Amino acid sequence: MCGISGFYGTPALRLPDVVLLERMIGAIAHRGPDAQGIATFAGAGLAHARLSIIDLASGLQPMANAEDTIHITFNGEIFNYIELRDELIARGHKFRTDSDTEVILHLYEECGLDCVESVNGDFAFAIWDSRKQRLMLARDRMGVRPLFHTMRDGVLYFASEVKSLLEVPGIRAELDPIALDQIFTFWFPLAPRTPFKDIDELRPGHILTAEGGNVTLRRYWRLTCPDAKDANAWDSRSETDIAEELRALLLDATRIRLRSDVPVGAYLSGGLDSSLVAASANRMRPNRLRTFSVTFESEEFDESAFQQDMVRALGTDHTALPCTTADIGRVFPTVIRHAERPLLRTAPAPLLRLSELVHTSGYKVVLTGEGADEVFGGYDIFKEAKLRRFCARDPQSRRRPLLFRKLYPYLPKLQAQSAAYLKAFFATGLDAVDDPLFSHLPRFRSTAGAKLFFSAELTHALDGYDALDELRATLPEDFARWHPLSQAQYLETAQLLPGYILSSQGDRVAMANAVECRFPFLDHRVVEMAARIPPGLKLHGLTEKYVLRRAARGLVPEHLATRPKQPYRAPDSAAFFGASQPPYVARLLGRSQIAASGFFDAAAVEKLVAKGRSGRIAGFRDNAALTGIVSTALWCEAFVHRADRLDQNPTATRQKVA
């Protein structure tokens, strides 16, 4: 796991190319504290910050082929590199290192742009081919590893994080109003859009090539689902056979993700997914597995009892990190600097602290359970959509809405509501069952309620823009023919997963402390198999992840394998108030400061802050709004105002945003 940056073209700057690359890679040195490397060419430049995990001695980058005509800077891991290497050697290739990076070079020599097709891994890389004068950028299928790019004066710049691009003279941070609107609708901007105006994200499963002054994009993979009415498209085997193959595939996905020349640990949340991953790893480790978890003061968020049950079952060497509400408020500015976007939730903050614990414990790699809920139908939103469709068939029924009490058992305030309230709350969009976004309309509209705090200026700048229409326009052509569960899963897997969970809660807060997370459930073989599993084996009645629970038998204690899903959450607005209120809150949320930013209605925010100080913020909308307003102000302070300060004092040393 590393950080990469570079350019294609000839920068017309006052500083040498080497100095430019040093600045760019220096801004993301936290991603790779073990070594740095730079290579310059006529028309291109590559830089690399290394986190040494495989081939510690000879895996330095940028790396060249034997003829010194192809160079690569690579971030991530190729988990099947041993098998690919053996195949390449059998075809006459000769290797100088034991690194997975060199495997990509040889694959490119043989297959060109199609080198990604046979790769099983999490990656973002750049290849400079001096023979063709071509730059290739590529990103993994699921969007685990980030990659950003922008054009400036005819030069293409790219990097693992935007803060690296901001080191290029002339590239400034400016908040994109549409991106902010999308964040306040979906929790993330729709790729390739980012919060930074004119800076794009390379979408998962895509290749960008720059050659002859032209830049082109090509998709090499996307999640596909069967036609709901095509019986031959679904896996028709028995429930037992599917569960057994799934178990074997998950064990293999875990096995290859244990490949490392440094120790590998695991996160334990207390739920089925991380427990299954840890149990699989524990079977394969010659030594006692090291596990890590985060705990909370409030029972509403804490799962420590279940974590300890799994620790006892596996006998792991475990460390739990207590995370207080005050801790979340304290580290939240650091979260925003690394996430590089406004956030509507504080959930990344405890994970930032957890990765710090992993780092100080001497570990660089951890396995985690992310992806299982998206791929196997684990979230309550899938059950909610199923019940809403059931209610839509008889809108006047008084009994059907009572089933909504079976949803969200971890939200006691929602459970305490009357039947009339539940019916009104979940009835959103019952007249829109043909809308491709039907499953997510309540979430999107609930989140978008936070936009009531937008200023008149921002609302005018958006000029009637509808984020939902843009999302609809991005859906696959055959989306309407998919099963409703497949449609809902796609929105989670192809959008929320890379847009928020794998970025703000994943790569960015882990790599802030030079920790690499690996995700067995996101092995593309697992994802592709899961897409073909009949919906009734994923959501069996209202039992989520049914077939995965069957695959976990014998690996995970029964009471953990069968407990209802409790998604990871953390205290939100409470982190910004109380006895330990962070000093930045008063500085950023004053009426004059909010008015000066131009993004939010100062009077409305003032009332919201008063509610927060008195402890009266309880609903999702106000929690999301408060967190979003705070994080937007922190984002501006970290990136926009930082650039202003540097412009006012150009002789000042450029400080890394980390």
How would you explain this protein's 3D organization?
This protein is α+β, with helices and mostly antiparallel strands. The chain has a domain at 2-176 and 195-219: Aminohydrolase, N-terminal nucleophile (Ntn) domain (Glutamine Phosphoribosylpyrophosphate, subunit 1, domain 1), CATH 3.60.20. Helix content is 41%, strand content 14%. It has 27 helices and 17 strands. The protein has a 6-stranded antiparallel sheet with strand order 2-3-1-9-8-10. A 6-stranded antiparallel sheet has the order 4-5-6-7-11-12, covered by helices on one side. It has a 5-stranded parallel sheet with strand order 15-14-13-16-17, sandwiched between helices. α9 crosses α27 (620-648). Mean pLDDT is 93; it is low at 650-658.
